[in-house]
Design a protein that fits this description.
alpha/beta; Lambda Exonuclease, Chain A; five-stranded mixed β-sheet; three-stranded mixed β-sheet; elongated
Length: 302
């Protein structure tokens, strides 16, 4: 894949000055400790797939839209529709919190990790509690009304939990319920006509942060070990690497075996037979043979 670097700079690996434990890295550890170790300890990440550019476009437009109501300090119509008593939260560092390379950060003392997460949006209710909000874009049949309508339910719950945990450790009061603003593209139209139509819904999610502290210590233990950890049960990358590695190794061993066998045969021919064989091969190719003229049909070996 163009642009893929399998040997990342050590600065971006565990122990390097630029390394951070992001929310997505925590999720990778849960999915597959081996891939996490290869990425963060050894500096070889999984190849990236294509960018979800339409999702990114929807995310960008949502941010612009909610920022309009943030400046006005009034609820967005979607918040009114779902009777959410809150307004978009205004903070000087919001753009930093949204940045994938910075995000909302907290220094976890017992592991010495800088934990980070790029948050889409934050709302605030009259009690001063912050509400974590994340934007999602997809296209599926029916209305998305709950997380059970998504195959990513558990991952999304953990996502909200990490953001809530980060806000709490930055000194904010956080509401237990977060929300996903879902944009679901319709395919029921007769024609595309150069536009997509989305149904926008608000999906609640009860945050859980109790799992985070133990998982941080598990990650610390993983990164400090010298041996490679086991792969995750549902990881598709590890079986691929193993199968591909075995097949490539088999080909390489076969080539080495063929070369050794050829060298052995040449050694056991003896000087006279080896020379005779060499001359015969040159004749077949039409090459001149030393010690033989066009009138001589048989070469004298010695």
């Amino acid at each position: 894949m163009a642009g893929y670097n399998p040997n990342r700079s050590a600065d971006w690996n565990y122990g390097g000055k630029k390394w951070r434990l992001s929310r997505s890295k925590i999720e990778l550890f849960i999915e597959c400790p081996r891939c996490f170790y290869l990425n963060n300890k050894l500096g070889t990440s999984r190849p990236r797939g294509p960018a979800f550019t339409i999702n990114i476009a929807v995310d960008t437009l949502f941010k612009k839209e909610f920022d309009v109501y943030r400046i006005k300090k009034i609820p967005h119509p979607l918040m009114r529709e779902y009777r959410i008593d809150a307004v978009p939260f205004k903070h000087k560092d919001l753009n930093t919190w949204r940045n994938n390379f910075e995000g909302l950060q907290f220094k976890h003392i017992s592991t010495d990790f800088t934990v980070s997460g790029a948050i889409d949006d934050v709302w605030q209710n009259p009690e001063g509690e912050l509400i974590v909000v994340d934007y999602k874009a997809t296209s599926k049949k029916g209305t998305i009304a709950s997380l059970s309508d998504s195959s990513w339910e558990e991952q999304y719950k953990r996502q909200i939990g990490v953001y809530q945990w980060l806000l709490k450790h930055n000194g904010f009061s956080v509401h237990k319920t977060g929300y996903f603003v879902y944009a679901n593209a319709s395919t029921d139209k007769e024609m595309f006509d150069g536009k997509l139509e989305f149904e926008v819904t608000l999906v609640p999610c009860e945050g859980d942060t109790d799992w985070i502290e133990p998982i941080l210590h598990d990650i610390k233990e993983c990164l400090e070990r010298e041996s490679v950890p086991p792969s995750g049960e549902r990881c598709e990358f590890c079986p691929y690497r193993e199968a591909a590695g075995k097949k490539l190794q088999k080909i390489q061993l076969a080539r080495k075996s063929f070369k050794v066998e050829g060298d052995t045969k040449r050694e056991t021919l003896g000087p006279k037979r080896a020379l005779k064989k060499s001359m015969s091969q040159k004749k077949q190719k039409g090459e001149p043979v030393q010690g033989e003229s066009s009138d001589i049909k048989t070469a004298t070996l010695f």
